[in-house]
């Protein structure tokens, strides 16, 4: 027998009663800690009192996993408990843990449809005691995203909404949205290890900032989240940046 949305929300409220705010003044933005990204974001990072949308570049499982772990890394670097609302039970907890999101920080809620999922996200955002609220939908119209944005404003709980690909295809980010930023994530070939080493190097993602309020779009090739939820520049780019810095020092 299906559970009604009010009953699910009531159950979520009971769970959230156990979560208390730490009472500390928290920073208004969550930086990536990577200059090429933070310098392109209008406030120097992701605003915590806002909605941010993420989509996989394609329906391929590799891109879907990359987008999910990109969200997990952001949530991992937030300050406290994380509410993750799902439509299907396909989250791989060990994978989230490898991206820095420990099981003890997660509160799961399962929704029957997109409407329930968006309602649960809104409830979590209005609680003000969470570090991040994460949800995965196929469809969310402008009024839906506006409600999430309004629920996030005035707090310090970051809202992360993953737009999944529909069966009929199309671009999940084509629908107008009130989100502060919109991201598209694709998997990329891993860096080869030195000759003689077995396996492959750290996973890589193509990270595209499709849209942001008050700023321009951009894209980067990044190494995937580590156990602290942090992305990294590929080693060759780090070496190139360091080399440029040494050249400038010699020129000076």
Condensed summary:
About 30% of the residues lie in helices and about 20% in strands. The protein is α/β, with parallel strands linked by helices and about 250 residues long.
Polypeptide structure, described:
The chain is an alpha/beta fold and 252 residues long. The chain has a single domain (8-190, 199-251), classed as 3-Layer(aba) Sandwich (Rossmann fold). Helices cover 32% and strands 22% of the residues. It has helices spanning 5-16, 35-38, 61-77, 93-98, 114-127, 142-152, 235-251; strands at 29-30, 46-47, 51-56, 82-86, 106-110, 132-137, 158-163, 181-188, 204-212, 218-223. The strands form two sheets. An eight-stranded mixed sheet has the order 5-4-6-7-3-8-9-10, sandwiched between helices. Strands 1-2 form a two-stranded antiparallel ribbon. Strand 4, helix 4 and strand 5 form a beta-alpha-beta unit. Helix 1 (5-16) packs parallel to helix 5. It is globular. Mean pLDDT is 86; it is low at 238-252.
Record the strand order, biggest sheet.
5-4-6-7-3-8-9-10
Architecture (CATH level 2) name: 3-Layer(aba) Sandwich
Spans where pLDDT lies below 50 across 5 or more residues = 238-252
Q: How far is it from the N-terminal to the C-terminal residue, by CA?
A: 74 Å
Q: Give the % helix.
A: 25-40%
Highest-level CATH class: Alpha Beta
Largest sheet: 8 strands, mixed
> Which sequence of SSEs, written as H and E, runs from N to C?
HEHEEHEHEHEHEEEEH
Provide the descriptors you would attach to this structure in a database record.
252 residues; alpha/beta; Rossmann fold; eight-stranded mixed sheet; two-stranded antiparallel sheet; 7 helices; 10 strands; 32% helix; 22% strand
């Amino acid at each position: 027998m299906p559970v009604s949305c009010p009953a699910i929300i009531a159950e979520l409220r009971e769970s959230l009663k156990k979560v208390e705010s730490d009472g500390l003044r928290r920073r208004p933005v969550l930086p990536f800690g990577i200059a090429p990204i933070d310098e392109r974001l209008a406030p120097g990072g992701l605003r915590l009192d806002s909605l941010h949308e993420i989509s996989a570049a394609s329906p391929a499982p590799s891109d879907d996993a990359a987008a999910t772990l990109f969200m997990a890394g952001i949530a991992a670097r937030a300050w406290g408990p994380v509410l993750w609302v799902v439509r299907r039970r396909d989250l791989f907890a060990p994978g989230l843990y490898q991206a820095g999101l420990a099981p003890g920080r997660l509160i799961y809620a399962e929704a029957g449809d997109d409407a329930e999922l968006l309602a649960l996200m809104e409830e979590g955002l209005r609680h003000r005691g969470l570090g991040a609220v994460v949800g995965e939908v196929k469809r969310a119209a402008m009024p839906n995203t506006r409600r999430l944005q309004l629920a996030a404003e005035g707090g310090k709980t970051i809202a992360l909404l993953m737009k999944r690909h529909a069966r009929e295809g199309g671009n999940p980010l084509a629908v107008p949205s009130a989100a502060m930023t919109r991201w598209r994530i694709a998997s990329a070939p891993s860096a080869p290890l030195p000759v003689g080493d077995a396996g492959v190097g750290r996973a890589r993602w193509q990270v595209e900032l499709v849209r942001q309020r008050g700023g321009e779009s951009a894209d980067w090739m990044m190494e995937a989240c580590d156990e602290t939820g942090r992305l990294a520049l590929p080693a060759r780019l780090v070496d190139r940046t360091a080399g440029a810095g040494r050249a400038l020092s010699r020129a000076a």
